[in-house]
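User: Run a structure prediction on this.
Assistant: Running it now.
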Amino acid sequence: MNRPFRLIDQGRVIETEAIVRDGAVVLPGGPAVLGWEWKDEGLCRGDICIPVRDADALRADGGVDLAALARTLGRPLAVDPAEGAAALAEAPADRSARLASRAAPDFTLPDLAGKMHSLSDHVGKKVLLVVYASW
């Protein structure tokens, strides 16, 4: 039986339906839920295609097994079937390449007066970022 399911894919929240049985999650919409599509080359999204040797191992109950899809994509997966939620992380190789570049991700935050500041506004300058948390 399909039930509401929340999937977080690299920070993007996807509300979808899923079949949850014995801890396994099947996405009836297939890999298209995550923006991937089946082609002769394998799983493709845009110009990127990942060869899939055993496509039948991914397919289950008319959809795609989320854990098998994560393994195929080489991405860590955390699943809480009881809560109807899962998080699909960035592939370790992609994360390593991003960290090796030493480029900080851009963000925009307000100062105490409410004026918005973006890190990208200060390229080439030294920036001191002070962060505080009460917990």
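Helices lie at 55-58, 66-73, 92-100.
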